[in-house]
Amino acid sequence: MNYISNLLLEFEIDPTIAGYLSIIIMILLISIICVVAHFITRKVVIRVITHIVKNNKFTWDKILLERRVFHKLSHFVPAIIIYSFSSTFPNYQNLIEKSAIAYIIIVGLLVMDNLLNAINDIYQTYEISRIKPIKGYIQVIKIIVITLGVILVIANLIGKSPLVFLSGIGALSAVLMLVFKDSLLGLVAGIQLASNDMVRVGDWIEMPKYGADGDIIDISLNTVKVQNWDKTITMVPSYAMISDSFINWRGMQTSGGRRIKRSLFIDTTSISFCTEEMIRKFNTIDFLSDYMNDREREIEEYNTKNDINRSNPVNGRALTNIGVFRAYINNYIQHHPGINQEMTLLVRQLAPTEHGLPLEIYAFSNDIGWAVYESVQADIFDHLFAVAQEFGLRLFQNPSGHDLKSMVDESRGEVMKSRA
């Protein structure tokens, strides 16, 4: 700057004016150098790095490029240049240096933020990220980095050691715990969720207390984001996954089968022993012919061996329409293409209720898709509702308005006949 001032004095310019002009010219020169250096960094160096990144086989560096980590690094160049020229202005050197250092720290925080985001993105490219997400830990690191960065900026501007501020954190611990209560609870919950493999991204969970019923699409430090089946989003606090109960359907999803557990309610007054006519009819049913032959032979041998008097059907053993129907359902499900034959399959009677005798079908579909599961279940029960009457059985249902109207019409008809 002295050199510029001497040049101006050679043109017989007033020394005071020459001093101001030299300062302005120096500022312009430094600005031009900063602009040119920044331009070279952005347009030349970053383009070379981009070309190298796009033409190699690695993926992690491409993620760094997408997160603009290299672009943020280019902001260091002007700050370093300004810091280097601070001695040019002795009266303002301290202020310029502090401002440049503060800017460098802030840019460093932005670089760290983008770098941590890139690390999370790189980690998500691996399958283990679905089991052990690290987004919560990344957010904790961000909080620590930002806190330290703010302390460094303030310490730099006021000219104090950062240790002065760090020593005061102990006194502020109660305030910090209050301010970051959710974050601390979320951090502890995140560690427990990850270590115990309680939830993963993609799991279907059900948590009625929070209205959550759908797939997990994100696990962060404070919240677990659930996309419900109606496409709404429910945010569940991370610590709630530890303190409250929820259902995780992952076991069903990985098993390859979805449970069918539904009952037919049989009117108990329609249950009876099989007649000869019914037995002949059942022998013509494909899913029952082998069963009927085996059971008839077994019953006949038992009754003969024990000299049972079969003149009364109560004596000895005999076939019942409910037993044959249960065997038919079992064979029908075993031959159904939508049922997983490797998993539990049974047809059982439950305790009778005021609605009749529950005949429960317990099986698993071989497809966990919702639409396919409902279709398989409906197909089975459509058939069973229609075929029950072929076994002389009536399905129970509470009287409807039509039933009551039919009874009234029937009673009225009998009254009219009696009067006639």
UniProtKB/TrEMBL annotation:
It holds the Pfam family MS_channel_2nd. The chain crosses the membrane at residues 20-40, 69-89, 101-119, 140-158, 164-180. It is found in: Cell inner membrane. Gene3D superfamilies: 2.30.30.60. GO terms for cellular component: plasma membrane. The keyword Glycosyltransferase does not apply. Its main location: membrane. It comes from the Bacteria. Residues 182-250 form the Mechanosensitive ion channel MscS domain. This is Mechanosensing system component YbdG. The lineage of its organism: Bacteria, Bacillati, Bacillota, Bacilli, Bacillales.
